[in-house]
Amino acid sequence: MTQPLEPTPAAMPAPADPPSGRERTKARWKQSLGAAKLAWGKLTDDELLQMEGRADKLAGLVQERYFITRDAAVQQVKRFYATYLS
Prior knowledge:
mainly alpha, about 0% strand, Protein Yjbj, Chain: A, about 90 residues, globular
């Protein structure tokens, strides 16, 4: 009776590089788009998709659409990120 061959290191897939922080943020952003749409209903789906988790751009868009100060928009985005993206 023969035993099954053990895979050689060359036959084994190389471990994937861990995703960078930016890639993780983009992935989490896509998962939280529904929550973002509920939080900021005046933003279109396309606009939210284009943000790709970029907090500074999102804060600018929130400020523009809701006619609030930059500080208020930044605080909203920070709270959202703390809740959904951390």
